Amino acid sequence: MPGLATFIIRRIILYIALFFTVIVVTFLLVHMAPGDPTYILAGQVNDPEFIKAVRHRFGLDKPLYIQLLIYIENVLKGDLGYSYFRAEPVSTLILSRIPATFLLILTAMFIASLIGITLGTIAAYKRGLADAVISLLSLIGISIPYFWLGQLMLITFSLNLNLFPTGGMISLTTSYQGIYYYLDVLYHLVLPATTLAIFNIAYITRVTRGNVLDALSQDFIITAKAKGLPERRIIFRHALRNAIIPVITFIGFNTGTLLVGAIVTETIFAWPGMGSLLYSSLQLRDYPVMLGIFIYGALIVILINLIVDILYGILDPRIRRG
Amino acid sequence: MILLFHSLKKIFSNLNARLLIGILLTGVLTILGISAPLITWYPPLTAMLGPPYQPPSFQHPFGTDDLGGDIYTNTIYGIRTSLIVGALSALIALIIGIIIGSVAGYYGGFLEDLLMRITDMAFIIPQFLLALIIVTILGPNIYNIILAIGVTSWPGIARMTRATTLSVKQQTFIEAAKVLGLSDIKIIFSELLPNSLPPVIPYITLQISSNILVEAGLGFLGVSDPNVPSLGMLLNNAQQHILMNVWWMSVFPGVILSLMILGFNLLGDGLIEYMNPRLRRKMY
Lengths: 322, 284
Known about the structure:
The complex is a heterodimer. Chain A is built from 13 helices and two strands. In chain A, helix 5 runs antiparallel to helix 6, helix 7 (146-160) packs parallel to helix 11 and helix 9 runs antiparallel to helix 10. Chain A has helices at 4-32, 37-42, 48-57, 64-76, 90-126, 128-143, 146-160, 179-216, 219-226, 231-253, 255-269, 274-283, 287-315; strands at 82-83, 88-89. In chain A, strand 1 and strand 2 (88-89) form a beta hairpin. Chain B is built from 13 helices and no strands. The two termini of chain B are 35 Å apart. In chain B, 48% of the residues are buried.
């Protein structure tokens, strides 16, 4: 069995390779596009001086492999070009949107993990009616698309019950100070976070239930029962403790799905994160921003997967063999 | 005949509730999608069939949109699009996944390591974002959408195929085929796949469900073929007019989409349980 250091180094190399693959795939896509790639990298501009500058900067007059090297160099420097419509560097634009997206994702995942793990454990332990109801609800929960659920929430709770704002992150009519500012953000966060949480509650419930069931069929549970340990102790100290590692790694490995969910949810509630940026750049055909979001999105997902992968390897030595 | 009756009876007595509801839901929706021209009375994607923003009525059971188009007609035609895109893209994923999975499982060694690493990596990159970029760059038409979803959704099938291939590979008839001197390609296609593929079938159903979701998601973000009615496109249109409180523009296409995804999820879960009765205790 290889040591921990070897495992970590191998994983890091693997994930770096993956990031390079993402850059190369993006590059190839740009060049596969019908028409001149200049317009994808620069936007639909008719200024010949600007086009010339872009062609020079990306080396579009040079052979393909040199273009690729220039592209990789630019990406590694964080230079993803300019958004034509916003006259701002793509990186600056995306980085300014990341905190809002993270706030949404972390809030939703905190709620979803708490509720999902609880429901999944109850379903696995109680079986019978509770299990049937929870399992049915979680199946329905994973079948409802986020974007439609968000619309339903907006129509019901904002437009008809007037309970929550229809969108945005802060109130535009009044400017709140101090603690009230945060409460205002929290108030705007309720609907988008709930939308994003519901699908994930359903998913985490399913995964937790499966893992707790596995743990409950192990010999040490029978031993614990035979020793006459109280039920609560069996569930929390024995079953859940063994089931929780795979559940948490599952959550970590699913960052990609989560990011996509956040992007879609943001467009419904005009939450000012990466998703809203992606949506507006899609409508404007602002290719540099779209490609930038893909590259940053992939980078975020790769980093989180790497961290989860290494933590998993530390917690469970059996993984290191893979 | 009696034999057939008995085997049918056996099949039906083993059906579980999930499988049954799944078959029913997907069956009904497929029939609705196929018979779209028969059960609708307006042409799809046509404006000015009535006043704009009308709530549901007898002429327009699902109401009308911002241009006075009939939402019922577009929704029923949208079922068709979802099913076609879901099935064809899953077929592309299946072909890629089977080739990678069975080659990796059959040959083993370095080739397996390499192919499975590639599969792991492909799993990590957000499938939806990649498909989105591919479609926007190549142009939003239905063929590019099918292609983009297909080429980004194979990793799950590849993993499953490899796992089942590994267990079938141990069987003596594979060894016998090797001793007989059959070529690798012949062994893979006529000995290995017929035995390693059946356990993968439920996952194909789940793949269809997830691909339908991706297609609708692309449409929701405005990335859809403007000449083909789709549920995602309808929900995108609903989003653009949502502040007018025109709930019918969102509710009807959304309910149909959710039922379709639920149907394929039930079918997949039910098939897994049906094929592995021992799992019954663990399944939902």
